[in-house]
Design goal:
Elements: H1 4-20, H2 28-31, H3 34-46, H4 50-59, H5 70-102, E1 107-110, H6 112-115, E2 130-134, H7 139-150, E3 153-157, E4 161-165, E5 171-175, H8 187-191, E6 199-202, E7 205-207, H9 210-225, H10 231-244, H11 249-259, H12 262-277, H13 283-295, H14 301-312, H15 315-323, H16 327-333, H17 344-370, H18 376-389
Parallel strand pairs: 2-5
Antiparallel strand pairs: 1-2, 3-4, 4-5, 6-7
Helix pairs in contact: 1-3, 1-4, 3-4, 4-5, 5-7, 9-10, 9-11, 10-12, 12-13, 13-18, 14-15, 14-18
Length: 395
């Protein structure tokens, strides 16, 4: 069976060929044994890239080798699922845009809703939900309209968004800011002025400036990086944004510097160049690759614990940070805390109960267990990355 590095090399080769028109590894076909392909499909799913791997296999006619294998059906199903999900999301996105136009609510599409237009085909960029930003002053009005006019179900408010579900199972994260309070380093200071330079493109739809679009993507990568990983897909998005261009590099670097993630941006750009432009690895990119590949698109709990211990300066402080949410974050979820701060312990207990009753209690228990058993090599790698990416500061 292939090692992790060989495995990711094949997957990156498929991505490089399908998304960027680059060359495949010379031995791509010969390395795709049934055993290797099974492992590769597992890795691809963890990074939200199974449909791209399947597309490569279909394009090259390689699936003919697996006619009697359920693997052939699995790969074809990945493309079908990605196409169907994308179509459902695009239908709901059109309904959301029409609604906000009718009720005169300015909005900005975020993440996949914006970036998938840069892919060769929109279904190649999968996402769990639709992300849209509205002004905080419009949040309650937008929520009522979504419930009353589109029949959406409000699933609750967090420190930066409200979650809605449509009747056909599409989720909408309606953001009212681009950061968690006290979020990624100084992301608050960089992203809080999003509406000041937004471009009006008609029908109440706005887009962020090119500079802020890029900086927001980096900030979002950092946010996920420090809770376990941001996946290969975020590097594809990064490269597509860089290829699109249109942003002033000096302005962008200045914003990244203010935010505190300029070193991170340089490092992920270097790794993207290794993967998609065949640049040479450095010690930093190899260590970063290991962390990213292992983490997957949603992050890895082992990575999360290891990096949390380093950032919180110890096991006990890390566990306390996971048990108790800061007041500045909680008051975003529960605005009534602004006037009644004494209710904070009540909401902390309610939050803990929600974690347990929602089924996340098992994950929390695993996190507690892993807190006492982080391997030395993982701890050392995380410590190296935090130092060289200058992400040592607490969120």
């Amino acid at each position: 069976m292939l090692s992790d590095y060989e495995n990711i090399d094949i997957l990156i080769g498929a991505v490089r060929h399908i998304i960027f028109g680059g060359a495949l590894p010379a031995d791509f076909d010969s390395r795709l044994t049934p055993d290797a392909l099974n492992k590769l499909l597992f890795t691809a799913k963890r990074h939200g890239l199974a449909q791209i791997l399947a597309c490569e296999m279909l394009e090259r006619g390689l699936l003919a080798n697996y006619k009697t294998d359920p693997l052939e059906k699995s790969l074809r199903d990945e493309v079908a699922k990605a196409v169907a999900k994308c179509e459902k999301q695009q239908i709901e996105f059109a309904r959301q845009q029409d609604l906000f136009n009718k009720v005169k609510i300015p909005f900005i599409p975020l993440k996949g809703a914006y970036i998938r237009s840069l892919y060769p085909e929109p279904w190649m960029r999968t996402s769990c939900d639709i992300d849209i930003l509205v002004k905080e002053s419009d949040l309650e009005y937008a929520a009522r309209e979504l419930e009353q006019k589109l029949g959406y179900t409000n699933r609750g408010r967090s420190a930066h968004d409200m979650l809605f579900a449509s009747k056909n199972g599409v989720y909408l994260e309606l953001h009212y800011n681009l950061f968690n309070s006290g979020g990624v380093l100084n992301s608050d200071g960089v992203l809080s002025g999003v509406w000041d330079n937004a471009h009006d493109i008609g029908r109440y739809r706005f887009e962020m400036s090119e500079e802020l679009t890029y900086v927001y993507h980096i900030a979002h990568m950092v946010k996920h990086f420090v809770i376990g990983g941001c996946g290969v897909r975020s590097f594809i998005d990064l490269k597509l944004l860089q290829n699109k261009g249109g942003f002033d590099r000096k302005k962008t670097d200045a914003l990244l510097e203010i935010g505190g993630f300029l070193k991170f941006e340089k490092a992920v750009t270097e790794l993207a160049s290794v993967w998609f432009d065949s640049a040479e690895h450095t010690e930093l990119t190899r260590r970063l690759e290991l962390y990213i590949v292992e983490g997957g698109v949603m992050g890895n709990i082992k990575n999360r614990v290891a990096i949390g211990q380093q950032r919180e300066r110890g096991k006990l402080k890390y566990i306390l940070s996971r048990l108790f949410v800061p007041y500045d974050v909680m008051k975003k979820e529960h605005p009534e805390l602004e006037k009644h701060k004494w209710l904070l312990p009540v909401f902390e207990l309610k939050r803990m109960w929600r974690v347990i009753s929602s089924g996340r209690g098992r994950t929390a228990a695993l996190e507690l267990k892993l807190n006492n058993s982080v391997p030395d090599d993982r701890r050392e790698n995380v410590e190296y990355l935090l130092k060289h990416l200058e992400l040592n500061k607490k969120i």
